[in-house]
Amino acid sequence: MMHGGGFGGGMGGGSMGGGGMGRMGRRLGMDDEGELGSVYNHRVVTRLLSYVLPHKGLAIMSLLTMLVTTFTIVAQPWIIKLAIDELVDTGEQVNAGEQATVGALAFVMVLFAVNMGVRFVSNYMYQVSLARVSQGVLYSLRTRIFGHLQRLSPSFYDRNEVGRIMSRGQNDVNQLQEFLNLVVSSLADVLSLGGIVIALFLLDVQLALITLTVIPVLIGIMLIWQKIAWGTFMRVRQAISVVNANLQENISGIRVVQSLNREETNMERFDEVNNGHLEANLHASRLSAALMPTVEILTAIAIGLVVIFGGRQAINGTMEVSVIVAFVLYVQRFFDPIRNLTMQYTQFQRAMTSGVRIFGLLDTPVEVKDKEDAVDLPPVKGAITLEGIRFHYVPEIEVVKGIDLTIQPGETVAFVGQTGAGKTTLVALLNRFYDVTEGRITIDGYDIRDVTQDSLARQTAM
User: Fold this and answer.
1) CATH classification of the domain holding 255
2) Beta pairing partners, 438
């Protein structure tokens, strides 16, 4: 601890202690990787829309082309039904010894080709326009975050690990960017489901009701799966955050690590957290892998119901074969949107949580900033005065305790003391990286809080 007395210009009473800049308050930082938000957060969505508006033309194009793509997907089985009907009619004409007409069949085949062509073009435009909007939003968010991080005070970095800040700028931004894709793809899935259900009931109401009896079973399985998968996917998120933080700390502190010969110890610690990340990912992969066979089994059951009940009606002559084929094709397309929507539910929650964290970071106030009436510091002569200054990184743990010091122009003053005495803190206060909690610091009679930071920085050096 350094006590008053004799640094060139007479350091008065008071003391410094408790230490190095930024070593206090790590526990006050960001530590919410395991949190999962609601599916919809109005504040996040509203602010995200402000980033989408500059790309509203592309966003509208993406929505319109998505609608066209969804329509072509739903229409395809119906066109195949029409083609089968025409083939059956043609066969009946041949069997009856009549002249077969292929004009209607040719029209259906052309219609099928046009549908496929429109689907290809619309899907391409949909994917490209959505990607451009998403990447534009990602670019704007990262630029905004980087600019804000440049302005934040050093006290923010004292409280937050760099690895977690990097997670905000990378992982959370990517997650929020995917939210746009999720919104459009979820809308497409809902419209596709609606179109398929309408088509099924238009084809045959009784068979549609029989086929849809497997839906409650699927929904129940999905709800159970989601409840189990939630914790697993959160562990993956927590694990990668820990790996990033551990990696960053070891790289930034590599000199200390090597000087203390801690390579082996740090490798063991990193292997532990890295293995935790591996196990979490493998468990998540096993859960995801279990979902697909479940959907396939239910799809097979639904198709079996169509074949059994529809085939019986076809044998009795009360149902056309083309209707059974269309039913089978629609059933194959029916379960994928349900599975997608179930998995996207958790993704929506993660995206909303990422949005809360990102905009929370962007809303973090700059603690050291210029007053509205701040003036430029004139060319300095070098008279520095510390008047009863006190400072703490963490409330109730005071680092600088009532320091009085006067340094005359031209004097050379050295701060000497043991590690953690507060030497770096005092220099940081002189450069106004932090504001004192009590007292004031003046240069040539100007309180450094009354001058612009830019004019102060131009005339100081470290």
Assistant:
1) 1.20.1560.10
2) 390
